[in-house]
Amino acid sequence: MCCGYAQLPDASWPEASGPPRVVFEYQGHGPLTIYGRVTGSRYHFPGPAARVPVDGRDAPYLEVIRGLETVGEAKRDQAR
Questions:
Q1: Is 3 domain-assigned?
Q2: Residue 12 forms part of a structural domain
Q3: What is the widest separation between alpha-carbon atoms in the chain?
Q4: pLDDT in tens, 20-77
Q5: Burial level of 57, CB count in 10 A (0-12/13-18/19+)?
Q6: Which residues are paired to 25 by β-bridges?
Q7: Predicted structure pTM score
Q8: Where are the beta strands (DSSP E) in 1-80?
Q9: Which end of the chain is more exposed for a tag (fewer CB within 10 A), N or C?
Q10: Residue 55 lies in a domain
């Protein structure tokens, strides 16, 4: 606490113990942009075969989108 205000953690820096990131590959045509339902994060797939790491909390919602396939889990250093 400083000056009577609670100090909040910096939300811009993900913690090492945060949710896993799942890698999705786009199988569609043209670009695709999706916003995570839980986090509000923007996920942009510029074209076919593009791979994008997705916050694990948003992954269940992206799994049902036609043209997106789960291809694995991202390593921690790729998620930043």
A1: no
A2: no
A3: 54
A4: 999 999 999 999 999 999 999 999 999 999 999 999 999 999 999 999 999 988 776 5
A5: middle
A6: 51, 69
A7: 0.69
A8: 21-26, 32-35, 42-45, 51-55, 68-73
A9: N
A10: yes
